[in-house]
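> example.struct
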């Protein structure tokens, strides 16, 4: 039976506002195995014994070395067709993750949930900030297509970057007219938990009102019509969480992504957007 590697990335140095996401992987895994819920996805997959918990990466103090470790971990985790799930950490980790996957995987698109486009050329002098990963990914042509869902903070510079790189955004202000997503390649899913409305996910560093309900994000995952080859769930900041609800929300998203990986290619068309 296919097992899904689950790997923590306790990286915090590229956060721009608050620290805390380095503790995210531990909080999320604790919630995942809390006795209050079972390990079944809504789509009918029991994950008991199918999640291959590999702990958290040791990243050291050197920024370049940390990215190299993350990139290598992604490349190795995806060998033999495995579909890893990575737990951040701040969102900067998505750049080395996608770069690493690209070493062992053919063409894929990135489906990105976030309040923020994360495509600054650089942010406060740091080109590897958690505000920049998708600029780096697009510059290097690491994915065939980038679809960012939940955007509600874009400024002029980021809109220029969107045009420059051909990014696709589903902005919250356009919510009633979003098209149904369809992909003709496999998909890597990157979930920044601040895509959700802070009412649903308060345990993030950047509270941005007007976001997605949890249900909408889950429905979009279930509606995916392409194989999911990997995923990350990032920006959980346990210091800001309330009663662990954001950790549990991250765990729920993990279960549903894992369920989609186990039923690759059989995504159900349950919603039209
Ligand atoms: Mn982000
Ligand atoms: Mn964000």
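> example.seq
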């Amino acid at each position: 039976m296919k097992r899904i590697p689950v790997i923590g990335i306790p990286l915090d140095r590229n956060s721009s506002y608050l620290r805390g996401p380095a503790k995210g992987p531990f909080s999320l895994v604790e919630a995942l195995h809390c006795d209050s819920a079972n390990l079944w996805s809504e789509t009918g997959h029991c994950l008991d014994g199918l999640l291959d918990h590999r702990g958290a990466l040791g990243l050291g103090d050197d920024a370049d070395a940390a990215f190299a470790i993350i990139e290598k971990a992604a490349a190795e985790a995806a060998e033999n067709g495995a579909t890893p799930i990575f737990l951040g950490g701040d969102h900067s980790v998505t750049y080395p993750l996608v770069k690493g996957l690209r070493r062992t995987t053919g063409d894929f698109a990135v489906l990105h949930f976030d309040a923020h486009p994360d495509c600054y050329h650089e942010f406060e002098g740091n080109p590897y900030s958690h505000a920049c990963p998708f600029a780096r990914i697009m510059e290097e042509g690491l994915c065939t297509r980038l679809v960012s869902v939940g955007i509600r903070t874009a400024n002029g510079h980021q809109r220029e970057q969107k045009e420059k790189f051909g990014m696709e955004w589903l902005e919250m202000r356009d919510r009633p007219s979003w098209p149904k997503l369809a992909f003709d390649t496999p998909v890597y899913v990157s979930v920044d938990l601040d895509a959700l409305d802070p009412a649903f996910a308060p345990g993030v560093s950047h509270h941005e009102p007007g976001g997605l309900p949890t249900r909408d994000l889950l429905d979009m995952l279930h509606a995916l019509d392409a194989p999911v080859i990997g995923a990350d769930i990032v920006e959980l900041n346990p210091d800001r969480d309330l009663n662990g609800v954001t950790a549990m929300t991250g765990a729920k998203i993990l279960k549903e992504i894992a369920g989609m990986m186990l039923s690759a290619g059989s995504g159900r068309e349950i919603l039209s957007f």
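> remarks
DSSP finds seven helices and eight strands in the chain.
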